[in-house]
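seq as requested:
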Amino acid sequence: MNQPATETADVVLIGAGVMSATLAVLLKELDPEAKVEIVEQLDGAASESSFAWNNAGTGHAALCELNYTPRNKDGSISIEKAVRINTAFEESKQFWSYLIEQGAIESARRFLNPVPHMSFVRGAKDVEFLRKRFEAMSAHPCFADMRYSESPEQIAEWAPLLMRGRKGDDPIAATRVDQGTDVDFGALTRQLLRHLDSLGGARVSYKQRVASLEREANGDWLLELDVDHGKRSRQLRARFVFVGAGGGALPLLQKSGIPEAQGYAGFPVSGQWLRCDDPKLVAQHKAKVYSQASVGAPPMSVPHLDTRVVDGRSSLLFGPFAGFTTKFLKTGSPLDLPLSVRADNLRPMLSVARDNFSLVKYLVGQVLQTPKQRIEALREFFPEASEEDWRLEIAGQRVQIIKRDAKRGGKLEFGTELVTAADGSLAALLGASPGASTAVSTMLQLIERCFPERYQSEDWQSRLGAIFTARAGQLAQDGKRLAEVRERTHRVLELTPQPAQA
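struct tokens:
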């Protein structure tokens, strides 16, 4: 049988999640003539990390996540990371607003809903931390609307379920920002891909698994694809490849053979949630409430009680409860982790295993948890929670980054990291939170790195200026400009603040 002819594209993106969808639409805005193709091994879009029930749907803007504001050695609170994440989310909101104004995607209500963000702590030490955090953050324009209270009556007004039935006299405190959001990243991804499909020179191909990824002598990339579970094969040549396959990105990055991939490994962490769909309970809690992580717990396991809005219906979500599996994807193989071990990443992996015993102990404890223990954890937030109102929901896989470290041999990272080839012909995104919330900002960084000359050109800068009236760096420094941008995006995105519950 003759080998089918090799097809060509300017850009190939692996994985039909929110990252690839965002980058593909951005690139088509900058270069409408570019030939772009997304390939996805599953039979639909946003089926892994971007799927609504595989993530918490928090529009991460550092309003409630305490791990984004670490305490310095002198006791002060560092807000640099929080400002960076907050302004990155502002870039996402500008991009979505632009697409809505252009008629490229539908009303924001299909994927974005206003849900207040809260932090809630107990005990004198954590109350002191939250008070200092509030003082540091509220002094910055990004967080000027944040409110703080140690009053049980005020906290009960903000989030009734937190206080109902709560006993004891331990100090408590909470912060609240009305301008928080809940995001259905699956719905957003599907809207972006529908828009992409309507453009000339762009398509999304499903049930196509990347079997090999090789660089040719001229610098192009040749992809061998298994189509429809091996029923046929396909060759695809591209000048630029983006690996946006979530937990599956590391094996594909390793297939590429680029030197920049050496030393990277992955540590998979699975998750579970408790979910409640009872309309009476759901109506009594309209907020995303984050607290402190347990000792030894990864930041992605920070406990939170959330309002979720999926397909127009509100639910409550509590968790996440972590677990361990050797799969890199929810639909992956138990061999994913062992097959990712290489000579160049073995030492970093062993070093991380040696230095993170508390994390291993935590994961073992999570795996062995009983349903009763999960409900007891929920009652730390919602004292009157009843087991019969909640059911277990399996969350998505997260593959945390392990990378080389000169001092320790290897270190475990809990953020996201962009890995790019020296010539800019390939890029891969590794890691987890804040992930999808900052997809636009991350993809802009990718474009600047991988297309430096075109990025600086008058044409691309003019096109970017039409989408982003102010970039993250300017918003972090200019409170007046920030207010102007928010006024526009909140109007377009219908993000009117939600009143506190009485």
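The radius of gyration is 23 Å.
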